[in-house]
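Q: Structure for this?
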Amino acid sequence: MLHAAYLMPLLPLAGFVLLVFAGRRFGDPVAGWIGTVAVAGSFVVACLVLGGMAGLPVGQRLFVHNYFTWFHVGGLTVPVGIHVDPLSVTMCMFITGVSALIHLYSVGYMKGDPDYAKFFIYLNLFVFSMLVLVLANNLVLTFVGWEGVGVCSYWLIAFWFHRDSAASAGKKAFIYNRIGDAGFLLAIFLIYEKTGTLQYTGGPGGGIFGQLHHIGGGTATAAVLLLFLAATGKSAQIPLFNWLPDAMEGPTPVSALIHAATMVTAGVYLLCRMNHLLALSGNGTEVVAIIGGVTAFVAATIACAQQDIKKVLAFSTISQIGYMILAAGSGAYAAAIFLMVAHAFFKGLLFLAAGSVIHGLHGEQDLKRMGALRKYMKWTTWTFTIGWLAIAGVPPLAGFWAKGNVLENVYSHYKVLWVLGLLTAVLTAYYMSRLQVLAFGGEQRWDKPGPNGEPARHEPHESPWVMRLPLVILAVAALAGGVLNLPWAHRYSLEHWLAPVFAGALYDNHLNSGSLWALALADAAAAVIGIVVAVALWRGREVDKPRFEPQFLQRVWYWDDAYDMVIGRPSQRLATFLAWVVDARIIDGAVNGAARLVRTTGTATRRLQTGYVRNYALGIAIGMAAIVLFLLSRTWWS
Amino acid sequence: MSLSGAWYLGLAAVVFAIGAIGLLVRRNVLIMFMCIELMLNAANLTFVTFARMLGDIGGQALVFFVLVVAAAEVVVGLGIVVTNFRRRETTVADDLHSLKG
């Protein structure tokens, strides 16, 4: 069945092409259904491929096939081909599955939008690009998918581009990603220079992974750091994380699909895909782990002080991806992928439920203007509650197992980062509980006008079934996602399934079952502490507590301001200088000066041209006399 | 008695100077034409004088060319002057400034 994998990207591509040519004619809601069916078909193919792969012996679970040569230049041949192994199949499963659900949800959410068909065009193109990214069998094709998801992300963030904030958020995301992409390109150049190939495995010389002995320690560190720069851009890690909160300007299904479940995990996927390279560089992986851990913590603190329901979830996403990066830096790639899948379930769920809240409240996103929604939106409340408990790490939901799996691996390598990770777990439970209590608990605050002139909202309504169904399915997944990788079900765990991909690059996890129990208890305790503190703090009538929402956290640790001061303002000053001094004075001055010189000379000399014959005749006479005198003088003096 | 060549040359210089000054100070195109004729003939006189002094026939031959050119010039020039007079009723050179920028 593995050879059918090429159908996975082709189905969304077909949907994209169909909608490009006829989307407007199909309109609302047929265009949405076409997009949904295309991606659902992709999910069916993914299931078939998964089944086919599971039926094979462990050693044969790899299918690499080149369909055609894209280009051939010098000694470099770049084919278009697929690389089907347990890692890419796992990625495809949750990408197509979550995408299909979010497409279905969008059919309801985007109802009545004037650009209804366009939304699904972008969404299908996005799924196609994402599948190209994970299925590509060489770095260049992966980069194509990487850029494809980036540009779709840009289009979808700026989907409501008539709003200034949305347009500039799109640009911000694109520019931050470009910085990362530069790292990716340089990494490709470096790897090609050293190994002479860009295919992962197979082909002459066994691909990159077969040529790793040509890469020395320093080169490996450089390549790892460049790839990691790409990952920080796409996966919103320090120092390039600021674009993700702004990306919430896009429609909520986009935030759920692209900026929570799938695209932002591409950086983690890239690190996992290149795990053999990461294994060569101890320093490189250390940097990866530290950045991941610090990002997880910083983003979690910021999430504690945000007012906007989507902003809280955005910083939560950054924090959770920080966990994944931390896991990848600790060599626990399977744990990273496990958290990625679990996160796709519960964060997709949380975003969709938040979208349902926003939909029900007619566009209200401010947590302080919500409250008591449990009485009006039963389905949304229950599913959001499951997502909340899952991300907070309450056993036995998916988040508990996934986060625990990451933290136990971190514990055995970087004790300090483990402490940071545990603190982050407490914060995660805290900010999610705050969100839960402010939105669904307490008293209703949406029926009164806000302090800054926000209008009073109508009574919220529950969302239609196309939006509730994905919520329920994702809630079940978030509830039971932990079974993917239970510690005692070794042969049937995700870790065992992914082992062939990560063989040789895995650190061993030397923890006995006693320590594992202790660590699991610590995780559960962290979750409980966070929840208890948040509920105690926020359940009351008073929702404005500036002491617990300091400016420092609301302003994102002044991170944007720092960039503005260090890069933005000096660049602007330089641009002003170039425009008004260099361009206006020096360059324009030279041009105008040349013109003025010619004009002044002309004005001065035109007086000679009187037009009177006698003047010219006098000139001739004087000239002639001068010549004669000159000749005579030569005669006399010689 | 025969006069030495210097007298002829002196006469030619005086005639030429009269012509040149006349050209410079007069504004009537006809007078200016006559002055040009004076200068041309002063030049002719020097040619002939030098031809005699140096025993070279070339100088005398050149005078014929000058006479022919001068005649042609007068034909064209007087034609222009007459046409111009008909159109503008003036023979003053300074009034002909319609091409001045």
